[in-house]
C-alpha cells in the first residue's frame, strides 16, 4: 500500500508503538520525509549527555553535537522530556570547561523537561567510556537534520551505600561541579514542567537544592548514594551526624493539613531512597520537619534501600507515619553489613500497622555483595525476627486492600535446612493461615485450620538466593500446611483471578530484580528497583 494511502492516525499509532525501538525509528525517519518530525518526538524524548573524561576525544563528542543541534534546530528542544547528565570523579579541567559551556547553552533551551537525572548510575554497562553509544552521530537528510539519541534507561543499577563492591562508582562532590553549572542546575530544578528528579552518587549536596519550591508538577524524587551538607534555612539539619530520637519521632503530632504552609509545599507521589544510615536519617529529619518545602504526606509509592548497620527504624517509621494515609506501595530492602547487630527488630520494629491503603508490600533481606565473616548467620537471625514481625502487623480489618506481598531472601549460607523450614512456616502463617476459633463445630475447618486471611491478596511471591537444597527447604516450609481455598503454588505466576504463592529462585542476591514497582504512567522517569 502506498504511504500516501495510510491514514495519518494509523501512521501515528504505528510510530507510537515503535517508540522504544530506536533502530526502527531511525529507519522510519530516513524512509519517509513526513515521518521525520513524528519520529524525532520519540528519538529525542530521552537524552543522555556523558561528560566523563575521554583520553583521546574525537573532534565532535556527542554532547557537543547535541548542543549544536539545539542551536540549529530549536524545535528539537520541545521533544526532550528526560535529560541525564553523567559526571564522574576524575574529570579534568577541559572536561569541566566543556561541561560548563554545553550546559549553559542547553539547559535554558530545554523548557519542557519532565525528568532530570544528575550523577552516575544511569549508563548502560555495555557502552564505551566515550559515551558515543548514547548520542549517535548527526544524519543529514535534505533540509532536515535527523539526529538519533539513544535514550537513557529508566531503571538504574542498584547502588550499595556504605560499601565498595566490585564496580564501585566513585561519587562526585557537589562542590566539584563548576559554580556556573550549579546555578543552571538550580534553575532547571525549579522548572515549571519538571515531574521527576534523580540525584545519584554525589556527596555534599545542600538541602537547599531540594527546596524545589518552583516545581508545581513535581511528583517524584530519587536519591541514590548521596550525602548532604549544610542546612536549609528554617528546614532542619542537613548534616550527616543526626541524633535521631525514634521515640520522639513516634510521638510527634502529624502536621496540620489546613495550614498555610501546607498549601505552599510541593506534594510528592513517589519517593525512592538508597542511602546509608547517616544520610537517610538526615533526610528523614528534614522531610518530616514542619518547614520542609516538600510534602511527603501524599506519597503513594515509596522504596527504601539501606544497609542494616543501626539499631532503630525511627527514621523509616517517621516517613511511613507521614504518608500513612496515602501510601499504596512500600518496598524495603535491608542489607546486613555489620556483625553483631541482631537486636534491632526487637528494640524498634518497622511499623506498617497504620498503612491502611497499602496495596503492595515488598520486603528484601540480603547480604552485601562483598562477603563478610558471620554475615550469613546475622542475616538468618535478623530474618527470623524482622520479616515475620512486619507481616504480623497486617490484619484484614485494617489492610483489606492488600493485593501483593513479596519477600526476597538470601539463604546462601544459612545454618540448616530445618531452620529455613521453621522460618518459612513462621512467615507463612501471618499471611495465609488463620485458625478460626469461632467455628469449633466445623470439623472440616478445624482440621485444616486455614482460611483466606486477605480477601484481595492475589500475589504472594518468594525470591530466594542460595543452592538448590536450601531453596527446596524453603519451599517445603512454605508448603508444610494446607493452602486456603483459591490459592495455589506455582513455579511462575500467571495473571488471573487465582491467588498465587510463588517460590522463585534468583541466582544472586544483587540480581537486577524481577519486581520493579513503577508509577502507572507510561512516561515515568524514575522507577523502583529494590530487588
UniProtKB/TrEMBL annotation:
It comes from the Eukaryota. Residues 4-35 form the F-box domain. This is F-box domain-containing protein. It comes from Psilocybe cubensis (Psychedelic mushroom).
Amino acid at each position: 500500500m502506498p504511504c500516501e494511502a495510510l491514514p495519518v492516525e494509523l501512521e501515528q499509532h504505528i510510530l507510537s508503538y515503535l517508540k522504544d525501538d530506536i533502530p526502527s525509528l531511525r529507519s522510519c525517519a530516513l524512509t519517509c520525509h513526513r515521518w521525520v518530525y513524528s519520529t524525532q518526538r520519540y528519538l529525542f524524548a530521552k537524552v543522555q549527555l556523558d561528560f566523563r573524561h575521554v583520553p583521546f576525544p574525537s573532534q565532535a563528542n556527542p554532547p557537543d553535537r547535541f548542543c549544536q543541534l539545539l542551536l540549529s534546530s530549536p524545535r528539537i528542544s520541545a521533544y526532550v522530556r528526560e535529560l541525564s547528565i553523567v559526571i564522574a570523579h576524575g574529570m579534568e579541567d577541559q572536561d569541566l570547561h566543556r561541561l560548563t559551556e554545553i550546559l549553559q547553552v542547553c539547559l535554558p533551551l530545554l523548557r519542557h523537561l519532565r525528568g532530570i537525572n544528575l550523577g552516575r548510575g544511569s549508563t548502560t554497562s555495555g557502552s564505551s567510556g566515550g559515551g558515543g553509544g548514547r548520542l549517535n552521530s548527526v544524519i543529514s537528510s535534505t533540509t532536515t537534520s535527523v539526529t538519533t539519541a539513544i535514550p537513557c534507561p529508566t531503571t538504574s543499577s542498584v547502588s550499595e551505600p556504605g560499601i565498595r563492591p566490585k564496580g564501585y562508582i566513585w561519587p562526585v562532590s557537589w562542590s566539584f561541579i563548576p559554580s556556573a553549572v550549579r546555578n543552571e542546575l538550580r534553575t532547571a530544578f525549579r522548572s515549571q514542567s519538571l515531574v521527576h528528579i534523580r540525584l545519584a552518587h554525589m556527596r555534599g549536596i545542600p538541602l537547599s537544592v531540594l527546596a524545589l519550591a518552583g516545581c508545581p508538577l513535581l511528583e517524584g524524587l530519587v536519591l541514590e548514594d548521596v550525602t548532604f551538607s549544610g542546612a536549609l534555612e528554617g528546614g532542619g539539619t542537613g548534616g550527616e551526624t543526626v541524633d535521631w530520637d525514634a521515640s520522639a519521632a513516634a510521638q510527634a503530632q502529624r502536621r496540620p493539613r489546613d495550614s498555610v504552609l501546607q498549601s505552599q509545599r510541593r506534594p510528592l507521589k513517589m519517593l525512592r531512597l538508597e542511602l546509608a544510615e547517616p544520610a537517610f536519617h538526615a533526610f528523614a529529619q528534614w522531610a518530616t520537619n514542619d518547614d520542609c518545602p516538600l510534602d511527603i504526606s501524599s506519597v503513594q509509592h515509596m522504596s527504601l534501600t539501606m544497609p542494616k548497620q543501626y539499631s532503630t527504624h525511627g527514621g523509616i517509621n517517621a516517613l511511613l507515619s507521614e504518608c500513612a494515609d496515602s501510601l499504596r506501595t512500600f518496598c524495603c530492602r535491608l542489607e546486613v553489613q555489620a556483625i553483631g547487630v541482631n537486636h534491632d527488630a526487637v528494640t524498634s520494629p518497622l511499623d506498617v500497622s497504620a498503612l491502611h491503603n497499602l496495596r503492595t508490600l515488598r520486603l528484601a533481606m540480603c547480604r552485601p555483595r562483598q562477603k563478610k565473616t558471620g554475615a550469613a548467620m546475622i542475616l538468618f537471625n535478623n530474618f527470623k525476627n524482622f520479616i515475620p514481625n512486619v507481616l504480623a502487623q497486617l490484619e484484614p480489618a485494617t489492610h483489606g486492600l492488600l493485593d501483593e506481598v513479596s519477600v526476597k531472601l538470601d539463604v546462601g549460607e544459612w545454618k540448616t535446612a530445618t531452620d529455613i523450614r521453621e522460618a518459612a512456616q513462621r512467615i507463612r502463617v501471618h499471611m495465609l493461615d488463620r485458625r478460626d476459633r469461632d467455628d469449633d463445630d466445623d470439623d472440616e475447618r478445624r482440621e485444616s485450620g486455614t482460611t483466606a486471611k486477605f480477601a484481595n491478596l492475589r500475589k504472594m511471591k518468594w525470591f530466594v538466593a542460595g543452592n538448590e537444597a536450601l531453596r527446596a527447604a524453603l519451599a517445603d516450609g512454605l508448603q508444610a500446611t494446607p493452602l486456603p481455598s483459591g490459592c495455589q503454588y506455582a513455579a511462575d505466576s500467571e495473571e488471573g483471578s487465582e491467588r498465587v504463592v510463588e517460590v522463585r529462585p534468583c541466582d544472586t542476591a544483587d540480581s537486577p530484580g524481577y519486581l520493579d514497582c513503577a508509577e502507572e504512567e507510561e512516561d515515568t522517569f524514575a522507577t523502583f528497583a529494590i530487588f
